[in-house]
Amino acid sequence: MNRMSPQLTVLLVIFSLHCYMSDMAMASDPDPLQDFCIPNTKWGYGRAARLDTVPCKNSSEATTDDFVFSGLKKPAEEFSNMGIAAVSVTPQMFPGLNTLGMSFVRADIQVGGINAPHFHPRATEITYVLQGKVYSGFVDSTNRVFATVLEQGEVMVFPRGLVHFQMNVGESPATVFGCFNSQNPGVQKIPSALFGSEIKDELLEKAFGMTPKQIDKMRRKFVPKG
Description:
The protein has four helices and ten strands. It is an alpha+beta fold. The strands form two sheets. It has a five-stranded antiparallel β-sheet with strand order 1-2-9-4-7, with helices on one face. A five-stranded antiparallel β-sheet has the order 6-5-8-3-10. The longest helix is centred in the N-terminal third of the chain and has 18 residues, at 6-23. It is globular and about 65 Å long. The termini are far apart.
């Protein structure tokens, strides 16, 4: 029996997600009003708070290169202290995605590395394991955990707005691809949101039963470096 190559599988996953989400009655992003909208770089991204407010360039000026992205051939150059390196692909990087209601990410996870608990407020995510073994899951609104170890070629869906996580539990580096039904899914990382923000220490101490010293230790780890 012939096995489908990982490269072909990931293309089918992304294609299937796009087709499925396009047919949903409640899409995350508005439906496009034209075939495509390549942002007019002459107008400039910097003038707009959102990319969807940037004018489209004339469709006759679009080229094949606008619809091809080669930045996922290799991992991001730098791994975080949690052992993950991610390349997020949005319309700012890949103009052909603009107004199509989707974006994606490549994440490489070192042995024992994690993708810390986080959620996307504006998108559902489908994650596909290109290589490795990755403990993956999400927590629903009743605090029920849905988690399993995904191996090469397997896929899992993380519902919109629910906390989810990943950890490389294999003996070699892992690579996963994620696809979102929004060109701007947003991300809120739970540890950074709690200990890297300006929430009062007193509240965190009461919420987690932690001492001021423990809170300070967490602050030093997650407060953004100036």
